[in-house]
Automatic annotation (TrEMBL):
<dbReference type="InterPro" id="IPR036291">
    <property type="entry name" value="NAD(P)-bd_dom_sf"/>
</dbReference>
<dbReference type="InterPro" id="IPR029753">
    <property type="entry name" value="D-isomer_DH_CS"/>
</dbReference>
<comment type="similarity">
    <text>Belongs to the D-isomer specific 2-hydroxyacid dehydrogenase family.</text>
</comment>
<feature type="domain" description="D-isomer specific 2-hydroxyacid dehydrogenase catalytic">
    <location>
        <begin position="36"/>
        <end position="309"/>
    </location>
</feature>
<dbReference type="InterPro" id="IPR050223">
    <property type="entry name" value="D-isomer_2-hydroxyacid_DH"/>
</dbReference>
<feature type="domain" description="D-isomer specific 2-hydroxyacid dehydrogenase NAD-binding">
    <location>
        <begin position="106"/>
        <end position="285"/>
    </location>
</feature>
<dbReference type="InterPro" id="IPR006140">
    <property type="entry name" value="D-isomer_DH_NAD-bd"/>
</dbReference>
<dbReference type="Pfam" id="PF00389">
    <property type="entry name" value="2-Hacid_dh"/>
</dbReference>
<keyword id="KW-0560">Oxidoreductase</keyword>
<dbReference type="Pfam" id="PF02826">
    <property type="entry name" value="2-Hacid_dh_C"/>
</dbReference>
<keyword id="KW-0520">NAD</keyword>
<dbReference type="InterPro" id="IPR006139">
    <property type="entry name" value="D-isomer_2_OHA_DH_cat_dom"/>
</dbReference>
<protein>
    <submittedName>
        <fullName>D-glycerate dehydrogenase</fullName>
    </submittedName>
</protein>
Amino acid sequence: MSIRILSTSPLVGPALAELGARFPNLRLAAFRSPEWNAALPEAEALVVMLSEPITEADLDAAPKLRAIGTYSVGVNHLPLKACESRGIAVVNTPGVLTDATADIALALLLALTRRVAEGEALVRSGAWKGWAPDQLLGPGLAGKACGILGSGPIGQAFARRAWALGMRPLFWDRDGRDGEVDFGAGRAQRMSLAELLPLSAVLSLHCPLTDQTRGLLDRAALEKLPEGAVIINTARGGILDENAAIDLLESGRLGGVGLDVYDGEPRINPRWLQAPRAVLLPHLGSATVETREAMARLLCDGLGNALTGTRG
Ligand code: DGY
């Protein structure tokens, strides 16, 4: 019997099992394991994670493929043009991880500026000698400008959080639009990157990784930020020149970098592990129970529609 759905992982919640009940012959196999490779030629639908890049060669090896579902909103690991030209549907999970991802960006911002990890480590070490006037000071946020790259739902959700902290959101959009963004709690100006960077005491990345945004924050761009600026990246590692960011952290030019994503993750540039004023998380943006269940539901509904030829 043909393998209708080949998933590299179980998903959170019941949605994948329910999809398997609807379309018999769902196989679980680790990405690029011998079992996965052997099942690929028969697969009609794939389920992959954001860390599992699918190539055109995989599409060649899967002539029955009708849909690829990714358990993520990001689709930079999929060969989108090749899928389109072969009529293979791509299903992702927009909308349902907006708040969770904006929350993790906020967590990084506060952890970095209020030195949460260092404070926790100090208490756990047993070396804390008590309150001191200059202990673990960090920059305040109220009244400062917060540059946001990407004015889509996650960028806007982060703007609401920055606004609640008393910051002034500013937006840059990859489509070059200008004018104001109504982000739900207020309005903020869209501007060019050249205008936005020198104003941004905090810079938070919320745009997808595309040919246009790869390497967007190179050394020259980072040097346009104000002295002591803080960068938060919950989008994709490839948007930021990591070596340049580490150089500027080491020189004291940047005030801090908070990362949830890395270029080439889960491999991490070893310089991050020694970098000063960096907070590093293991890609937790969508990691709430409710969000992962909702992502699974959206993904499985989309795959079901693609396999039955109905529109979502
Ligand atoms: C996604 O789903 O693409 C996000 O990176 C989650 O953090």
